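Troubleshooting log. The previous structure file for this entry was overwritten by mistake, so regenerating from the original sequence record. Sequence copied from the archived sheet and checked twice against the printout by T.R.
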Amino acid sequence: MDFLLLVYAFLIFYPLLVLWRGIDRKRDRECYILDYECYKPTDDRKLDTEFSGKVIMRSKQLGLNEYKFLLKAIVSSGIGEQTYGPRIMFKGQEENPTLQDSVSEVEEFFHDSIEKLLARSGISPREIDVLVVNVSMLSSVPSLAARIINHYKLREDVKVFNLSGMGCSASLISVDIVQNVFKSCKNVYALVVTSESLSPNWYSGNDRSMILANCLFRSGGCAILLTNKRALKHRAMFKLKCLVRTHHGARDESYDCCLQREDEQGRLGFHLGKSLPKAATRALVDNLREITPKILPVRELLRFMVVSFIRKYWSHRSTKGVVSPKPVINFKTGVDHFCIHTGGKAVIDGIGVNLDLTEYDLEPARMTLHRFGNTSASSLWYVLGYMEAKKRLKRGDRVLMMSFGAGFKCNSCLWEVVRDLDADNVWKDCIDSYPPKSLANPFMEKFGWINNEDPSTFVMR
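Regenerated output below.
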């Protein structure tokens, strides 16, 4: 009789034990952001209108038509006068960079942001278990990750990932790597470092598709501390809900629209093709198609399906050929805030149209583009910082991050705010002045005379 009781007890409690262990193990795989630190270069690296004009005029390859093109581009870019550039530009040596110039630019960011992040979080460098570094346009030997390990004396068994060539979408790729490590390792700290090196990538030729990059990209970076320690979840800022990566590298048109190459004179630069908007839209649509069912409530998905079916049904039945408006998914039913990559004004406008967003939703991205410019993969975290500085982020809110990158890629993820956030960050000195009354920059006022010049008599003033 006792034996039968033991058998019955085993049959009852063993499945419960297996279920509990499965749930418990899943909790150890959660991905939390403990803290992050965006880089703010020193004021002597600010690119105001007057200095930017001097830099452009230093190029001997540009003519009147190129000046007009650049003026139009910068005036409509949405970028203000407070952005930052690499020190090599202030030395007048942007056309002749050295390896040390490139390395020094990223090391200045490393030493500032990583030290501030670790000091504020109370985490020792020796406690870091995973290090992911992404700097797309600079690959050094030893790697940039090795430089961080050497400077901070990380442990010998630290798991290291050094990414290059991933473009503006690299920070979410780094988060994805961390998330996958967390699935197999318990009680782990991970440090993600995301930036770009502009020093070796100034284009000194006159190809319009390549000189455009000189106007759009700015210096910046972010260090992010993540963990899967459940004991620290009360200290966390964000919890990762899901992450989706879309890669269209197999399509030649998408692959060719955004790449590093040499022009006809052999000058290296970053090419932005005319097919870029089309490639970005296609990647965005495919990415949304996959992430939407993961982040929106069932009622919204059902509503969209029903409305789509009715529209399709009546369009076939209609004898007058009248087609009702295309149904739109309401992303706000599952998302409270939209953290959009600051690839440019056109990128922000395009996502706003596709997701049916308001100016309030787009404000963080627009203000980040105006204040810090396109800082490549780190841009998303400046946008997130703006939301935090404006005290928009409350416990339980859901934040959708979206980024694009060369390849061509579109990556997105959803974060849940774990606690109310209102701490000081990179925006603290200027947040009260945002949004400004006007985002217009003074380039047209300063250099508008170029549009009235005659090519046959033009002389640079």
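Residues 2-27 form the longest helix (26 residues). Archived copy saved in two places this time.
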